[in-house]
Amino acid sequence: MSPAGQPGPDAGRGGAVNALLAAVRGRAIVSCQAYPGEPMRDADTMCRVAQAAAAGGAAGIRAQGPEDLRRIRAALDLPLIGLWKDGADDVFITPTIEHAFEVAAAGADIVALDGTGRPRPDGRTLAQTVRAVHEHTGRLVMADVSTYDEGVAAADAGADLVGTTLAGYTPYSRGGPGPDLDLVGRLSRDLPVPVIAEGRIHTTEQAAEAIRRGAHAVVVGTAITHPTSITRWFARAIGDACPPG
Ligand SMILES: CC(=O)N[C@H](C=O)[C@@H](O)[C@H](O)[C@H](O)COP(=O)(O)O
Asked: Is 164 in the pocket of ligand 1 (CB under 6 A)?
């Protein structure tokens, strides 16, 4: 099986899907993203970060925006989860079908998109969006959800994978400093599709616990690829430990 999901000669789409999922099972996927205006917000830099993650054993890469995706696709033969963050609306992860098609065209094997039940800017339902991605691009869909009910609905809508990405990032979901491992466990137990643990996984222990609770794979972003945040964590801890005066 090829890590990028190329099937054997007689495997059909099902073979490609299975190969892709098998390539990341029980492994780390590294999210390589920088935010607008940041020093690392540049496709070449993100590509190098992805290459560095691959050298460390990342089984897959998650990345944002067509330009970053094209660069990373050209440089790495690893399963690639693509998204496009756009807009100021509630739904900002690959918000419309046009964004999803662009992400697929840029080389993503899996198109990640908002999998909540909130109104989408293009007026399509999640099920319509998933169907369109399947029919027009043949790519898998990862639905990024924030609650248990959204995960169930996303699987019903045809998503191939469900991620806990948005837990704590909708006004009605459970936030907190760490990942929602309870949500990971409940979705992994009940859904008929693989669950990807994602969101605020900052330690190796949390990542391992997500797998123990049934996650198919674990996406780690900030704790590996966002030096500004990591520096802030250390700076705060050091400052808190510093005796007064
Ligand atoms: C909520 C949202 O917009 N999440 C984004 C989704 O792609 C990224 O900003 C996160 O970095 C990614 O989910 C990985 O999570 P963490 O960086 O916490 O390991």
From this structure: no
Query: Cβ(221) to ligand 1 under 6 A?
Result: yes
Q: What does the DSSP assignment read for 160-195?
A: SEEE-TTTTSSTTS---SS--HHHHHHHHHH-SS-E
Q: Is residue 240 part of a domain?
A: no
In a mutational test of the pocket of ligand 1, which residue from 144, 198, 225, 226 has the highest number of ligand atoms less than 8 Å from its CB? 198
Residue numbers of the domain that contains 86: 23-222
In this model, does residue 4 exceed pLDDT 80?
Answer: no
In a domain, 238, yes or no: no
d(CA 229, CA 123): 35
pLDDT digits (tens, 9 = 90+) for 142-188: 999 999 999 999 999 999 999 999 999 999 998 889 999 999 999 99
Report if residue 190 sits inside a domain.
yes
Question: What average pLDDT does the chain have?
Answer: 94
pTM flag (> 0.90): yes
Total domains, the chain = 1
Can you tell me the distance from the alpha carbon of 210 to that of 122, in angstroms, rounded to the nearest whole number?
Answer: 34
Do the domain assignments include residue 195? yes
- ipTM computed for the complex: 0.99
Check pocket membership of 23 for ligand 1, CB cut-off 6 A.
Answer: no
CATH code of 57's domain: 3.20.20.70
Rounded Cα distance between 145 and 151, Å, is 6
pLDDT, tens digit (0-9, with 9 covering 90-100), for 98-145: 999 999 999 999 999 999 999 999 999 999 999 999 999 999 999 999
Residue 83 Cβ < 6 Å to ligand 1: yes
